[in-house]
Every structure is written in structure tokens, then in C-alpha cells.
Amino acid sequence: MLVTGREILQDAHKNNYAVGAFNVNNMEIVQAIIEAAEETNSPVILQASQGGLKYAGVEYIAGLGKIAAYNAKVPVALHLDHGTDFDQVMLCIRHGFTSVMIDGSRFELDENIAITKKVIEVAHAVGVSVEAELGKIGGTEDHITVDERDVTFTDPEEAKRFVEETNVDYLAIAVGTAHGLYKGEPKLDFDRIKTIKEITGIPLVLHGSSGVPEESIKKAVSLGINKINIDTDLRVAFAAAIKDFLKENPDNIDPRKILGPAKYAMKEAVMEKMHLFGSVGRA
Does the active-site annotation cover 81? Predict the structure, then answer.
């Protein structure tokens, strides 16, 4: 069933678990995520990044996501990840996204608040949930890059003001993760997560979570993280399965047989995350 992000994450917030938000680019990825969610009875968020929208087009992403959600036995939200401007967010809302992110983290606090309020005014009027970001998360996701020198951890007092002035539904915070592959082990600022959760009282979002040690994820969830974004880990599983298949079957030209093992590998990876996040059985 297609629901809003707020419906999914308010329950996670109330019952102290996290929901996986998995990036989608094509049909096989969507199918893998939905099959994993149904087998584990987990709520789930399908999300599209800038690269995903550029690759497939908003119409295809929205169509795939809505068909999957309507037929699913579990709650599914369709989310825009890292929306860059007001017009793009509105485009996704018009195409049926039930959750959108407006990423104003590159702006100063007052401007971030202003653009977030503008998006929320429209989105909430049509029943769509909104995520925003405060602080700067390092690394690269598609064409969005934040240099290590520009990383800024989220300030708890600024988070409090941001939430009070915008009425945002959930907030992505910078606490030590990064987009893409890690060169070393990320060190999360758990005290900062705990403080921001206590001071804002809303669902918190962790970006750049692929590659973060399982114990760190569990602790972050216990302290108030309710939405966890995963992309790189699915790409790794997808690519490895295709490489293995083609190595063993170099003459095979059937896309279904080539992509089938990749879909299964992604499904297994998604199920592992759902168990780790504590969303199994929560649908």
C-alpha cells in the first residue's frame, strides 16, 4: 500500500526502530526491495536520487514505485532523495511521490529554513511528507559532492530552531557518515544523535549508511535514528552478481537471466538491512 513517509516514520519514532530507504533506478531494484519487504513484513521507503531521476525519468520512477506500492502487502512510501530546488520537488509531488526531501544544507541556516518552509507549505497542503537536512554530509552521491573540508556536523541548538520554525517531518543530520564508499571506518557522534533526538523529538535520518559497522548502526537506531538511507551496498551486491554470472556464462545474452541473479543478490542485501534496522515484522 502507498503511504506517506510520515506514517511510516512516526511509528518507527514511537517504537524505536528504523526503516530502510533504498535507492531505485530500474524495475529489478524495485522488485528486489518490495519482495524483501514482503518476506520480512517490513515497512519500506523507495527513494529516487538525482542520478536515478536523470537515468530513468521521473515518470518511470514514479510509475514503477506506485505500481509496486499499490500491489504490496506492506506500507511503502515513494520518496525524493536530495531534492535540489523547489521546482523539482513540486514535479515529484505532481507525479505521486508521497515524501520529498528538500536539501538546503548548502545554504546558511536562515536560507535553509526559508526554502524548507516554502516546500512544506505546499507539500503538507496535499498530504506529502517532507525531509530536510541540517549540516553537511561528506562524500559523493551522483553529481552532488561535499568535500571533506566542508563537512559540518549538525548543531543541536540549530536543529531545535530549524524544527520549530519549519515543522519538518523528519530531519537528516550530519554525525560522521558520508555518501559513497568509505576509505576507513566511519566514526559516528552518538552523543550528538542522542542530544538532537531529545531536543527535537522527531524522526531522524542517517544518510551515507552503506559500509557503517553493524554495531554502530544498532547504536544509532537505539539513540533515535528512524530512517536509514542505503544505496552503495545495493550497487555492490548488484554488480558482484552480474560479474559472477557473466564469468560463468560468458555467452549468455538474455537480460532476464543476467539480471535475475542481481535482483536476488539485492533482495538478500535489503533483507539483511531490514533485520539490522529492526523493521522486520513492523508492517
Answer: yes
